[in-house]
Amino acid sequence: MNKSAGILEIEAGITVMHNGFERIFSSVPIHFGKGVSLANGAYIYCTGKGDDIYIGDYSIIGGELILSPGTRIGTHCSFGTGTIIVAGSFCIGNGCVMSHGCTITQDVPDNSLVIGRRGLIFNK
């Protein structure tokens, strides 16, 4: 685990527990931007081989988040509990909101809302 200039980087294969509630496990490195917050009891999980994961500044993880290697998340994004980013190196644009239990199967443009298991995308 490396923290410099307010940015947290977690190496592959490391499990991080904070206060015994929030958990992070990933088979690839995860790079957290400034001000990323995890709700009490949130966890991030990723398995598979591929590129590093990047989570942009001031994003909020509201519960469980399952990521695929290579995922890129923009700034000021919010994730509800049970969000799944299915196999693929998808990009989530800046200012996006993912509802509880949604599945992401494609890139999401800036300022979008994603809802449901089918991952319906609504643009502002």
Features:
UDP N-Acetylglucosamine Acyltransferase, domain 1; single chain; transferase; 124 residues; six-stranded mixed beta sheet; 18 strands; mainly beta; globular
The CATH class designation is Mainly Beta
- Average pLDDT: 85
Residue share in β-strands: 35-45%
Q: SSE order in H/E notation?
A: EEEEEEEEEEEEEEEEEE
**How many domain regions?**
1
Report the biggest beta sheet as strand number plus sense, adding barrel if it closes.
Answer: 6 strands, mixed
Structure, described:
- 0% of the residues lie in helices and 44% in strands.
- With 124 residues, it is mainly β.
- It has a single domain, classed as 3 Solenoid (UDP N-Acetylglucosamine Acyltransferase, domain 1), CATH 2.160.10.
- The chain has a six-stranded mixed beta sheet, with no helix packed on it. The protein has a six-stranded mixed beta sheet with strand order 3-4-7-10-13-16, with no helix packed on it. Strands 6-9-12-15-17-18 form a six-stranded mixed beta sheet, with no helix packed on it.
- A hairpin with a 2-residue loop joins β1 and β2.
- One of its GO terms (molecular function) is transferase activity.
- It comes from Phocaeicola salanitronis (strain DSM 18170 / JCM 13657 / CCUG 60908 / BL78) (Bacteroides salanitronis).
What's the gist of this structure?
This is Transferase family protein. By secondary structure, this protein is mainly β.
